[in-house]
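Consider the following input, taken from an annotated entry for Xylulose kinase (Streptomyces caeni).
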Amino acid sequence: MSAAEGPLVVGVDSSTQSTKALVVDASTGRVMASGQAPHTVSSGAGRESDPRQWWDALCEALRQCGEAAHEATAVSIGGQQHGLVALDAQGDPVRPALLWNDVRSAPQARRLVEELGGPKAWAERTGSVPGPSFTVTKWAWLAENEPETVRTTAAVRLPHDYLTERLTGQGTTDRGDASGTGWWASATESYDQETLARVGLDPALLPRVVRPGEVAGTVRDTHDLPFSKGTLVAPGTGDNAAAALGLGLRPGTPVLSLGTSGTVYAVSRRRPADPTGTVAGFADAHGDWLPLACTLNCTLAVDRIAALLGLDREAVEPGTGATLLPYLDGERTPDLPHASGLLHGLRHDTTAGQLLQAAYDGAVHSLLGALDLVLDTDADRTTPLLLIGGGAKGRAWQETVRRLSGRPVQIPEARELVALGAAAQAAGLLTGEDPAAVARRWDTARGPVLGAVERDESTLTRIAGVLSDAAPLLEREPDRR
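Applying the prediction step yields:
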């Protein structure tokens, strides 16, 4: 490995199922070393993880980076959004973290929306109408179902906050991740006292919101990580805001991310406030906004369908009339937390490959339906759609997005964009640059462009019709007997 041209920084992506670390040359964006380690998520009614696994995975990923990590002068953590981490007075978890895709708090979400003025009031105050993914609903669920846990909780953190605090010893977060909690008011960029009072959460339990470009702290010397004492620690942020930094996004460029969840988002200079709840009005990590729509079921759900059919994930065949809504974990967009997967239009001549293509179509339909709501009204609709995430490598995903969107699709060559965005944030601490400008200097969005094809309106119309007709089934709460 040749020598770096500038100082080294570390960017971390602590995602739902693994933690990745990149050591990056701050001058060129070249990845000098990398590491990855897994962690587990519970199955069943809830989705939970032990936060200590995230720390162990971070330690292992950095160990794999070798000496390069020791030479880094700044580090930043990007992490999965919305998760509720409850800590005791010693900073240890009092229970496993409730993750973003744990939808047990759907009743609490509905009640909170009703009790605090309805959807429009929520959108105006916080930028979003909270669903069961949002942290505030998880705290309300915890208070109702595990009051002893609440009594022993001395600090409430998000996943990236937990890791940052273990590095620095200080409780901090950033505006990007805080905006996904439901208790951070985007109108005032501060914690919302009325919301906190309603759910019985003492604001003293929450971390300080660090400003973009501010140093969150320095690495303390009470751990086994390879960093030197005094290494700068950036604020970090949520995974989607980190990926936006990693792409160097400018306003008006749409992104579709295909991971465990699916997201579509764009940077905006205007504070979003969608009373329908389709678009979450998140803040980004450097002073603008990141209107975003998210589905719970994306690559994991489609891979599950492929496994049930005994097919490789690329073994799709052109569809006929079958429609498959792959809502295996309930769904967030559309807001159907109790839904399960639904298949309609099965015939004697329907093939397994056609069913798999129908699963892709069902997953992409939900995301594209929110695309126009995410983009500002004056955005250029011919701008290529940036396709990122693990699914972006798959030909079936690429062609499905291309066919159903009718837009040109660009596939950035850079991988691990969340970790790269975190690295760009760390580099910005050293250079004084906007992290998005750092990423543009690194040319992270470079990649092939697939030209636009005619939009498949008939498939979109058919899926929308099935979704509408099946509403009573999809909205029905499951029988728990």
